[in-house]
Amino acid sequence: MQASLHELAQLILNGVITGTILALTGVGASLVFGIHRVANFAHGEYLTFGAYMGLVFNSGLGQNLAVSALGAVGATALLALAVHLLVLKPLRGRGLVAMSLITVGIGLMLRNVVFMVAGPQIRQYDIDQSAVFDLALVRISPGQAVAIAITVVVAPAMALFLARTPLGKSMRAVADNRDLAAVSGIDVDRIGAYVWMLAGGLAGLGGIMFAAVQGAFDPNLGFEILFLIFTTVVLGGIGSAYGALVAGLVLGLVMELSTWSGLAGGLEARFKPILAFVALIGLLLYRPQGLFGRARVL
Amino acid sequence: MDFLNPAFWTFVAIIAGIYAVFSLGLYVQFSLAGLPNFGHVAFMAVAAYTMAILVVRYAVPMPLAAGAGLVGAILLALVLGIPTVRLRADYLAIATVAGGEIIRYLAMNLPDLTGGPIGSIGLLGPGQIALYNGDWLAFLDRLAGNLSGVVGTRVSRDAAAAILVWLLAGLLVLVLWRCERSPWGRVLKAIREDEDAVTAVGKNVFAFKMQALILGAVLAGVAGLLLALQIGVFSPEDYQPTLTFYAYLIVILGGMNRLLAIPVGAVVFSLLYSGTRLLNFFPLSLIDSGSRAFLRLFLVGFLLVLLMAVRPQGMLGNRRELLLEK
Amino acid sequence: MWKSFSVLFASILVAMLGASQPASAADVSLTLKYGVLAGLTGDPAPSGQGWNEAARLAVDQAAATLKSLNLPGISVVLADSQDSQGNAQAGVEAAQKLVQIDRVNVIIGDFYSSVTSAAATAVAIPNNVLMFTGGTSPALTKLNTGPTPLIWQPVAADDVQGRVLAKIIADALGKSAKINVGARNDAYGTNLSNVFKEAWLAGGGTIPKFVIYNHQQPTLDSEAQEVAQGDPDGWLFIDFCQTFEKLALPLTRTGKWDPAKSFGSDTLNDCASRGSKNYPGMRATIANASSGTSFPAFRALFEQKAKPGVKFQAFLAESFDSVFVALLAALEAKSSDPLKISEHVVSVTNDPGTPYSFEQLDQAIKDVLDGKKVHFIGATGPIQFAPTGRVTATAYDIWQHKPDGTSAVVSTIKFQP
Questions:
Q1: What is the distance in angstroms between the Cα of C314 and the nearest Cα belonging to chain B?
Q2: Which helix (H) or strand (E) segment is B106 a member of?
């Protein structure tokens, strides 16, 4: 079995792209989980919403993909904020399970609204998906190029934001230990709202990236990736933004590279999700708090 | 339009009863032992597949195959439980979801074992339809015949099944009610409230949690077998995580931590879920039928949120108890 | 005296003959209720919504035709469409609702074989309701154990289509060619690809790469890479257009894929009409869509009148045709009783009979009511139901994607199963 460098390079690229989508969406989901103690089962629908908002700007208003991405990010951030203020905050305090079920309900509503309003047919952005950029070792599509560009810009920016800015540091503090943060003077409610906006915006971005990379998408887009996002969050440690960034990339790379023919023929492609879940359980056996989670009992 | 046709509602009643049994299993794990197991549906799947494979491929008699199905569920509980039971609540939730999805993906991708994506009809290969519930249906017919003799009017096969399922559910409620009040039950509740204290007293917390997990798994297995036998056909698509969400809904809808409210929750849930199929009356019939399907699921989601908002303690729950919940 | 006798005799003869004429159109009175069972939400939504629309358009067409013929005693109605959500349990509940509450006579659906078999065994067969399924499992019609079939399968099942594909590819690329296969990981993809594999290997060919992929995944880049390896002489893809796009794009990028050497299942015959695009040179096969001369007319009707956002797909013709077959059989049986209808399904879809398509539905209805034989030619072709419930049409069209992005039939072959 010939295992070429070319194939390996392509797989690494695919892994990085998938990994970044998981990483960016995972950061938002992880912070939300950490701060609000809610497993947001509607998170996938935020991705879908972002992808369709991108379509509105791109095909509907004729904007280029960069502007559409910004529009999608803004719109999804607003959606997340609205859901938080109108539904989740007033209903706070009902416990992990009840709140998670509420997000299930919201997800159901969102998904079917998109189906009703946008229709079930597949959509594409206004870019020529059949164009190919030949870069010596790898060949990429315009959609992938867009995704890589976003990765290169946003991922470090996100890391910097979380590490250096007051807002980022506050978010991490609240996600880490809410009571302690409150005692040290952080306005936990306000930070909570900002976190939802960030999570929404990142989800919207992830949705556009996802749609651009896939080439064609329909309202099932986000739901299909939901459990991989959750896997990323837990793998990285719930509440740890850095953890989600790292875990997402690792997960993406591991899934893609597992199919490399250099690894004794490679895993069959359709077993990739199983690998992700097994990896999760495997890790939790040795590190029950995830890669970067806090090793303490609540 | 025959809205009140008893044939339809009897069928809904059977499904409600099966879900009640399923949710009782979750009650033991979550409400008693404090384990938020989000992969509960996997126990259903393993029990159903084990039974079907044995009946269809090896001609094992149904009662034996059903027993083997329950053993399968227990084995899965051990495999799933040992790594996850010690985890913190939110990690356990996601890890068990992952476990459930692994089972589902394996069922989908090992066609030689499970028939693949087409489900149980494919267990004998693509040229045949594999059916396993012939004996069960014959049994129900005999039961219906006997009941008709006793009651005086004709009892249909579905009605017999509904009675059987609900009797079983009632029996299980009684048994669990006794369990709750037994020393064993009290230890579990104590574990849910303060694990460290229980360990300090010298109890093996891990063992108790595993016992709860296994008991819950057996109940889920029973529900899975009943469902598979009633529908006659199943596929990996029938065992999505959504089913576990439904069980949580039932536990909460009835009333948080209230065993006796689970049948109520099951009925409310079924009315919600099946009742929204009956939307083709004026003025909703003005909406085209394709969009009505989306509207139905939208309504289900909306009612879910509404119920959680308006009555988070469920139908029979106590608001005060809710505030004690972590 | 003989003269008056013969006149009397003749008039009695005439009266007797007049009395034995078949009942005229005004005597037939029935209401035929249809129900649609399909995955309308979630993963199957794009196909399910189309299936529903095709049935709806057919019922509307039938109702309009009946009205124009001034036959108030005969009516057709689509009582409801229920969502099977692509799984057996929801499908049975949906079928129960249609049968017990809406009291339908005919169910159009499901196109998932697992849902169909569950709904058939649990609901349709015990309650004597007809089902016209789009499922492709060859075993579905084996559920018919009664005197006449209740489950009818207007689509060529996998066991036939798989072998047709093997023959077509052998004709084009030689029967010992190396063919890579890429199929979606669901019942349709796995069954059809396995039938093809058996047929292809038996014919002396080889399959260097046999890739089954999860169509819901974010990207199919590694799968595309795998299926492009092994230096094959050609490819076979089994997928739906929307998800095939996810595979086709990275395939093009590998630089090793040649659409002109690729073949697709019937779902891939014309992706441009579904919102994605065609790959010039690629070929796909459909049973008889062009000799069903009404296929273009159905397509035009669908594109004009279907709900916006629901795209046309060739297999929707099965849903469309089934409505008319059920209607004509009911008229010939002069009853909406499903058991009686099922006795006439073979008759109205086979010779002898004047051939009519849905475009001449008025003429067909008149003929049936007058007691004449008709052969309904569907948008899927001559149909030709056998008493088992399966179709026996033997001609297959080969479609090819053109350089300008459209797709058209390039040839038709006959296949003897």
A1: 19
A2: helix B89-109
